[in-house]
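User: I've been trying to design a sequence by hand for this structure and keep getting stuck. Would you show me what you'd pick, starting by listing the structure so we're on the same page?

Assistant: Good idea, let's start from the same input. This is the structure you sent:
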């Protein structure tokens, strides 16, 4: 399955359709003040180039949801601005002074490195002319700060948990896949201790579970690294729930693929 597809199964619904249902709107530039300032000052020509990239991305994301939901998605989840803001947040998380109560499991770090890959692809293709502009300078600044808060990881000690979605030869991977943070930005309590602390349990219960919940990744990490016998009843219910949802998502993907194959066969038969 396409790497971006796996990471987009819930996001278009959460950020596009659910926004109309009264859920608090997603703030693209949250904890990314430098990206926000840079976007406000972009020249018209650069804005136009970015808009063309976002329009292409919007069509890709619309094509991956059911027909009846497509009109509800009016902006791409993975816009150019979102990818820059995401990379800034990664860097800021690892710098001294970061303070936030949001969940950031190690799987989110992996996703953010994938997002940095896509930024590189954009800057080398659709936005190649902007590499010397404000966008190129902004990305270089974030990359330099990333290097300052990470160290080389020749043993690839994170690769068990953090690996590119699309398998490629090691020589082709960006340097961010070959370094590790000096200060881990993700929640590692369950993984390192093999136990569920009262503080983590209380935080996850307070955040709640469910499709699109920010706590879902952290709950999955806990279910992975804490022995089942040590889990409270609430977590055992989450284990059953996620097993069912994962199976349904798999069956849904297979069904969608089958529909696509059938449609292509019909078109060839005409």
């Amino acid at each position: 399955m396409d790497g971006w597809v796996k990471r987009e199964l819930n996001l278009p619904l959460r950020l596009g359709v659910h926004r109309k249902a009264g859920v608090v709107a997603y703030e693209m530039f949250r904890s990314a003040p430098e990206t926000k300032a840079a976007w406000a000052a972009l020249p018209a020509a650069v804005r136009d180039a970015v808009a063309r990239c976002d329009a292409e991305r919007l069509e890709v994301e619309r094509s991956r949801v059911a027909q009846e939901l497509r009109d509800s998605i009016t902006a791409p989840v993975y816009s150019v601005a979102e990818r820059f803001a995401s990379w800034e947040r990664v860097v800021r998380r690892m710098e001294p002074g970061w303070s936030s109560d949001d969940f950031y499991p190690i799987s989110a770090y992996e996703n953010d490195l994938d997002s940095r890959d896509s930024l590189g692809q954009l800057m080398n293709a659709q936005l190649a002319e902007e590499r010397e502009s404000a966008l190129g300078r902004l990305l270089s600044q974030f990359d330099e700060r990333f290097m300052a808060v990470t160290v080389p990881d020749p043993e690839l000690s994170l690769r068990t948990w953090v690996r590119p979605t699309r398998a490629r030869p090691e020589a082709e991977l960006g340097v961010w896949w070959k370094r590790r943070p000096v200060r881990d930005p993700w929640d590692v309590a369950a993984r390192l201790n093999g136990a569920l602390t009262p503080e983590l349990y209380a935080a996850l219960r307070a955040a709640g579970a469910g499709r699109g919940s920010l706590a879902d990744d952290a709950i999955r990490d806990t279910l992975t690294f804490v022995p089942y016998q040590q889990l409270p009843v609430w977590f055992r219910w989450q284990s059953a729930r996620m097993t069912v949802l994962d199976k349904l998502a798999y069956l849904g993907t297979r069904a969608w693929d089958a529909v696509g194959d059938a449609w292509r066969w019909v078109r060839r038969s005409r």
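That's my pick for every position. To get oriented when you compare it with your attempt: The first helix runs from residue 3 to 8. Residues 3 and 166 are 6 Å apart (CA to CA).
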